[in-house]
Every structure is written in C-alpha cells, then in structure tokens.
Amino acid sequence: MKTKLFTILLFFFTVSFAFADPGTIRGTIKDAKTKDALIGATVLIEGTQIGAAADVDGNFTLPGVPAGSYKIIISFVSYKTKEIPNVRVESGNTTVIDTEMDEEGTALQEVVVRSARVTNTEVAVISEIKQLKPIAVGISAAQIQKSQDRDAAAAMRRIPGVSIVDNRFVMIRGLGSRYNAVLINDVITPSSEVDTRSFSFDLVPSNIIDRMIVYKSGSAESPGDFAGGIIKIYTKKRPEQNFIDAAATIGYRGNTTFQNAQTHERGGLNFLGLWSKDQSLSSAFPARSADFNVLSNQERASFARLFPNNWALKNVNIAPDLRLALNIGKRFEIGNVDVSNITNINYSLTNQRADVNLSLYQNGLIANEVFEKYTDASYQRQSRIGLLHNWTFRFSPVFTMEWKTLLNQLGNTETVVRNGQKVIDGYDALSYSQRFENRTIVTTQVSGDHKLGELTKLNWITGYGYTGRWEPDWKRIRFQRITGATGADGQPAPFAAVTPNDPTANEVGHFFSKLGERVLTLSVNGEHSFGNPTDREPNRIRFGLYGERKDRDYENHFYGYNNIGNASAILTQGIGSIFTPENVNGQTGGLTIKDGTKDLDSYEGINNYTAAYLSGDVNFGSKAILTIGFRGEYNNQQLHSYIVNERKELVNNKIFIPLPSLNFTYRVSEKQNLRLAFSSTLNRPEFRELAPYAYYDFNLQADIRGNTTLKTAKIQNLDAKWEFYPSANELISVTGFYKHFKDPIESFLLPVGGNGLAYTFINAGSAENYGVEMEVRKGFVNAVSPFIQNLTLVGNVSFIKSTVNLGEFVQGPDLGGEIQNYDLTGLTDKKRPMANQSPYLINAGVYYADPATGWQWNVLYNVFGQRIFAVGNQNNPTVYETPRNVIDLNISKRIKQNLEIRLGIQDILNQPVRFAQDFNRNGKIDKDITSMTANADQDIRKFKRGSYFTLTAAYTFGRRTVIP
After folding, report:
1. Which of 111, 241, 425, 820 has its Cα between 20 and 30 A from that of 194?
2. How confident is the model at residue 196 (pLDDT cuts 50, 70, 90)?
3. DSSP state string for 757-792
4. Which residues form the TonB-dependent receptor-like beta-barrel domain (predicted)?
C-alpha cells in the first residue's frame, strides 16, 4: 500500500509541473479612504486583451501573461483612473500589485455600491474550494437549481466520492453515515435517527441551500468525529435584492400515482404530519410492565379498550404528489444598520407505493431452498412543512450579526400488507404493519462576525437544536393458516391471528416510542494575520473553542394481545373486527393484553463535548504553504436507565483525544495546486448503539440491540490531491487517500438458532480504506458553435477498497443482553469489506444553459458498486445491495422575467432495488440467478420505485428590486 501511495504522489508531482504557465499578475484594489474593496474595478494590460474585474474582496488575477514589462490600467466608476507602469512579469512567477484608488470628486456622491460576498454560484464554490487549506469538494445553489434536485440528499449525489442510501443517508468514500460529521451553518447537527448515527439529508429542501462543502481531510478548525467527510450545509442568508418567489410542483410516479393502495388513518391533520390525540398512549397505563402484568385479565382488558379500534384498512386511489414553496427576500435600513431577511416556507405531500418481494432461505447445501417467502404491498405517504427564517444585521463594516432558524415538521404514514408462506412450517401467512412516524427538527443560532483591526477577526456562534421523533401506536399483527387447508364448504380455511402468551415485537400488538434530544452549542473562533494585511497570503494563526451539551430521552412501550382459553371464533375474524370492545373483554374465549416492555427499553443520554484548537500557516515563499494544527477533544458520554424504579448508570465514558493535522499546498501555478494532508480523527459510539434495548425492524425481520462496551474508534487519514483550474468555472482533480482504523464500530450478526436475525454493534480490531477520486468540470466558452458554448460537462469517479479485520474475538451482548466474548473461529469471516462500502462510484452530467433564450436542460447519471447491506456469518450469508444505473433528465424554460417552467424525469431506467445474499460466499453477487445450482446467489428483497415525473411552475411577483 505504501508503494501505491508513493506512486500516486509521484504521478501528481510529474503531471503538475508539466502544465506550468508563463506568468501571473494578481493583487487587491481598495478605496484609499475607507479601505473597502472596490468590487468590479477593471484591470487591463495596456496594448493587450488581457484583463479582469475585481471580485467581492477586491482581488483580481491575470493568468497566462507572457514574460515582459507592462503598463497596468485600473478604472472604476467615480474613481480616478490609475496607471502603473513598468510592471515586470517573469516566466513561471507571480507579480503582486496591491493598490488603492481615489474618488474622482463629489459629483457622484449619491452613488452607493454595496455587495455581499457571492457564495452560491459555481465559480464562487470552485474559488472557495481552491482557497481552502483542507482538501474539499462542493456544490453550489446554481448547480442544484440546474439539476432540479429536490433536497440535499439528491444534490449530494453530484459530489465526488458520495453515494446515497435509502434516498436520504450520505456515504462518503464508501464509509457509512456514522463516519460523517454534518454541520448546518457551522453548527454540528444531531442525528435525525433513533437507531443509527445518521442525518437524513432529505430534511433539507434544495431551495434553501446556498452551497454545500464536503471536507475530505481534517483540520484543527473542524470537528474530529469523522472519517468519511465533514459536510457543511450553508443556508441562504442575505439577499442581494428584494424578491418574492413562489413555486408549485406536481409529481407523477410510475407504479404509484393513480394506483390503488391500502392505508390507515391517523387523524384529520395527517396531511400536516400530525396525528390525532387518541393515537397517544394514555397516561393511565402503569409505567412499568411488572406493575401492569400483575393486574387481572379483566383489568388489563379495560386498558386495552382505551386503544381505538381503527385497525381496518381503507382503499385509496393515490393522488399526484404536491410541492409548494414561497421565498421572500427583503433588505432595508434601520438607522445606520443594514438589515436583511430571507424567509422560505415549503410544503410537500408525496407518495411511494411498491410491491416488494421478500425471501428467507434455509442456507443449507441446496441453493434457493426457501424458508419463508412473501410479497409486501407497501405504501407510504409523506408530508413535510419546512421553514427557513434568517436575519442579518450589518451594524458597521467591522461588525455583522446573524440569526438563523430552520424548522422541519415531517410525517410518514406507512402501511405494509405482507402475504406469503412459511414454507418449511407449512403455513400461509398474512401480516399487517400500520406505522406512523413524526419528526420535528429545529435549529436556531445567533452569530457575530467582528473585525478587530486590519489583522484580527473574531466570530462566535451560539445555538440550540431540538430533535423530536414519535411513533404513536405502531400496530402489527400476523395471521396464519395451514397451507392447502379448506373448510367444510371446500373453500380455503380462514386465517387466524397469532396471539402468543408472552408479547413479542413481531406479533400482534401496539408499539409506542418517543425521543427528545436537546443540544446547546457555543463556538468562538479567532484569526490573526502577521505582517502586511494587504498580502494575498499572509502568515495567519487561528484559534477557537467549541462546547456542546446534548441531552436525550428515549422511551418505548409494547403491548401484545393474548387470548384467554379458546378464542378461535374471534381470531378468525377480519382485521377490522377482532379488537372490538366486546372481544377484548378479559373473559374466557376473549382477549386481553400484556405489557412486553422492559426497563432497558428506555434510557437517558448525556453528552458533554468540549474542544479547543490552534493552527497556523507557514509560508515557504509565494508557492508553498503549510498549515499545522492541533485540536484536543474531551468527551463525557453517559447513559442511564431506570431499573425497578432506580436510576442505573449503564455507561460513563470519559476520554480526551489529541488530534494533530497537517495540510500542505504547493502552488505549481495560478491554475494548479498540489495538496497533501494528514489528520488524526475519531468516531464515537452513538447513544442508540450503546443502549442495550432490542428494537424490532419489521421490514428486515430482525432485532437490533445496543452494546454498552463500545469504545471510541481512532482513525489516521492521509490525502493527496492534484487540482487544475483551466478557467474560473472549470477544474480537473485527482485525489488519493488512505485511512487506518483502530477499533472501528461495525454491525455484527449474533449467532442465533433457527432463522431469526439479531444484530448488534461491536468494535472490530482494525480496518483499512483507500482509493482514488477523479473529478472533471469542463466548459466551452471559446467554442465556435453557440450551442457548444452553452454546454458544461461534469463528471467524477471513485475507486475504493476497504478491509475490516475483526480479530480473534469480539465483545457484545447475547440474546439475553449479557455481555460476552464471541470466538470468531468458525463463526464468521474475520476479514471482509466494511459495511456499506461501495468499490466504485460514478457521477456524470451534461448541462446546457442558453441565457439568451432562457432554455436549460441537463442529463445526469449515477451508479454505485455493490455494497454490504447486512453483515452475515457462517449460518446466514452476507446480504449485498446491488448496483442501480440512474439517469435523470431536466428541462426548464424562462418565460420573460417572471415565470419559469421546469420538467423533470428522474430514474428513467427504473432498475430494481435489489438486495441479494452471497450464497456461494465469494464476496460478491454474481448475477440474478434463479437456478438451483450450488453457485446461485439469492434475492432477499427486490422492488421497483418507479420513474418520477415532475412539472414545476416558479413565478416572481412584480419586478425584482435591485438593491443599490
């Protein structure tokens, strides 16, 4: 591996020197009196066509200047034209000009120039990435708009080394979402999921995004808890002009829209993501199962009658999807304070129907020997209300304060009707899952930016975040009958509900869960420059503190029905009538309930996290810069649960970890950089991974339980990148990386009897992850054909390999929750790829934009290599998710200045989502084999989502008022 890395680095150096340029002139233009940047000032080399305009910081660059001596002419409206003679340019070197301009006079005093730093264009994002010290990639709001991606998850697919799981979770460099840090406006976001450390990127609608930057290498300023990448989402904040925009989208999905489906109701406000009060668990229920289950059958039945009998399903014809958005931007003054506001309100109601084939196998010597086989008729209706409300107050050129708030309210109504057979047992099976999930995510933060003179900057951020997740009354029931059995009339025998004596999560009952997580953050960051403040690259020192307090409360309750004596007359009734009050009576021949909740099914989590960092730049001439950083992180993670009404401490992990980092940039020329990076990072276990309770996943038919012995993983990261910028909106880059993990956290399939599945989380011994990423962005502004001039090609490809070495044994809970050491000899493969790691990722796009006619279109392509979905062992083969080729087409037309019409077709190929197990254990899924041969790999789950068509109308009310 060291030889491979050395070869990659040598290649970067060789290629980079081959592209050296003749010479460059760059500099900064400011007002001589106020020292403000003169945005848009024109710089021209006399007698040539070489020129440029100053950017929002007053900086300009004139690349590709032949060696010689020149006169530079600088002009700007209302300022005296300035001439600088005898500017010498040497081959391969950079000449720096920093100058100031004087106002021409008082005749134009009423002209006021104001501008905010432009950050949401493709050129701005490329420029930001180029100037960053760590290795990074990104995507702008402009590119997101062209792609017509609906949310941050869809937009992230366009970024090199990134793939998406379940249309909402992000994987970077083949590493699962647990290895990513996510920040919104530079504040760490809490996990949006209960059972995994993940942020659901579909929560962030695309029309509120300013840009997204993905840091691939670490730095002292960034949080240390990552290995794949640090994803920073910046929302829109300060409009350049007053505006009011509105948009409406109608969506049609094949296999879903206008199709019939079965669903259940959750109250009159279900379309807003809310549920009716009668879905909540009554406070009359005893808190502990031990207190509830000692009650008599009749007393427990009286509690059961508090549950509404709303099990019956109804047939619906699925309407088209609907999305609405309103954007308002205002700027005004209060005294001498420049005030601006951006408000975005969005609403969506979407549908997804699928027929899912689900199979479980004997996994013996005979291929495709089915144990259970089902077809799931799945229907989901999702609603979302989102609000972005950002204020900016510019008190003076040296002090700006911002207040940003982001709210998402989501509801997901999911109904699954599972029909099939338990083949080996000789039963027909019919199961129902009626689930509603509600999520509320709120983040609000106040920040301030201060300039303490020309050399020192200071900023601070204080924030509060809340994540709430409720599953009110998840109802599950399973019916069965003997295969082929008939009644006295010769018709198939009726199904009978299965009601075990002791409640189990995969049988009939009511499940309730509630999670609340509150996060308080405070961050202070400073920067001081040494030497001349007008230097383009002065030596700088950066320092800061970060503090976070996280509190989580989680509880769940499960109540299962059981019969008293022979209740076959009731259990063979339809799903809508079994649980009527007269049947749930606690009498012989009737039904009652028991509480299956355990004390460990609820927990309290507390996490105190503090960090301090210091970093500095060391310049080696005008071409090389080394950034040295050190970050120290202290974390205290605690987990408590109430056992027999006594608060017990289950976890108390206190750990301090030093995190050094190095980022080196060598400027081969104005258009080329060579970057090298090293960083130490870590990966902490999440509360859910530590909490020892078992959660039943209906779709996977598996229990998932936590492990209180998990340790913090430590990672060493090496990166090397060559980047070439032919023009302001073009780039070519090649990146190589290597990562070494100690104690990585992985999922582990517990050895259980029969065909039941139970997963936990363990620390493997070590792991490696390495690969190469390549990105190209190419325009054709100098082409002869106007059509070609309007084209942009974008593509990136990643090749990744990883290996987990589990070691001789791992530590984890058994089915009873007791911690033990599992000897891996003969139990599972000791070496395998990391879970969810794809061996390759490919993204490509062709963009066309004609500003003269208002036409835009693009064709986008995405595919990932097969990756481990569920880790197996010797009894159960590993399950892989197989590749899907995805092609999207988007077309838009601007009509005059007020109206834009957009047409989108997503997932044109509509290839199946397929999960297959590696029956022949060769580490891959060979193909879709259905034969009975010994080499057959077997489908576990398979379905099609359907191609998706959207039609959007976006309208601007009135004329946009440009702020002077």
Report:
1. 820
2. low
3. EEEEEEE-SEEEEEEEEEEEEEE-TT-SSHHHHTEE
4. 509-906
With CA atoms as reference, report the closest residue to 778 among 824, 829, 733, 726: 726
Separation in Å, CA 783 to CA 779, 786, 795: 9, 7, 20
Q: What is the C-alpha separation between 121 and 137, in angstroms, rounded?
A: 14
pLDDT greater than 90 at residue 166: no
Contact 207, 346 (CB under 8 A): yes
CA distance 118 to 397: 17
DSSP letter at 196? Answer: S
pLDDT at 525: 95
pLDDT tens, residue by residue, 555-612: 989 999 999 999 989 999 999 999 999 999 999 999 999 999 988 889 999 999 999 9
pLDDT tens, position by position, 770-793: 999 999 989 887 888 889 988 989
CATH architecture, domain defined by 2-101 = Sandwich (2.60)
Return the pLDDT at 14: 44
Average pLDDT, the chain: 85
- Decide if 505 contacts 435 (C-beta within 8 A): no
| DSSP 8-state secondary structure symbol assigned to residue 818 | -
Task: Show me where the domains of the chain are located.
Answer: 2-101, 122-239
- Greatest mean pLDDT among 159-173, 175-189, 623-637 lies in 623-637
- Secondary-structure class of domain 122-239 per CATH: mainly beta
Q: Are residues 541 and 526 in contact, defined by beta-carbon separation less than 8 angstroms?
A: no
CA neighbor of 630 nearest in space, from 716, 717, 543: 543
Please give the average per-residue pLDDT across 259-273, as a whole number: 83
Question: Averaged over 327-342, what is the pLDDT?
Answer: 90
- Which positions ≥6 away from 141 have C-beta within 8 Å? 120, 121, 209, 210, 211, 236
Q: Dihedral of the CA atoms 111, 116, 120, 124 (nearest 10)?
A: 90
Task: Compute the distance between CA of residue 766 and CA of residue 174 in angstroms, rounded to an integer.
Answer: 16
Q: DSSP of 538-600, one letter per residue?
A: -EEEEEEEEEEEEEEEEEEEEEEEEESS--HHHHTS-TTTTT-TTTSSSSTTSEEEEE---GG
- Cβ density class 90-118: b for 16+ within 10 Å, e for less: eeeebbebbbbbebeeeeeeeeeeeebee
For residue 914, what are the β-bridge partners?
A: 942
pLDDT at 45 over 70: yes
Token pair listed for 447 = 């920040």
Compute the distance between CA of residue 563 and CA of residue 421 in angstroms, rounded to an integer. 24
Q: Is there a contact between 946 and 255 (Cβ–Cβ < 8 Å)?
A: yes
DSSP 921-937: -SSS--S---S-STT--
Answer whether 166's CB lies under 8 Å from 193's CB. Answer: no
Phi, psi of 289 (to 5 degrees): -60, -35
**What local confidence, expressed as pLDDT, does residue 297 receive?**
95
Query: Pairing mode, if any, of strands 209-215 and 136-140?
Result: antiparallel
Task: Assess contact for 590 and 563: CB atoms under 8 A.
Answer: yes
Residue 195 neighbours by CB under 8 Å, 6+ apart: 688, 695, 704
The candidate with the shortest Cα–Cα distance to 605, out of 682, 684, 545, is 684
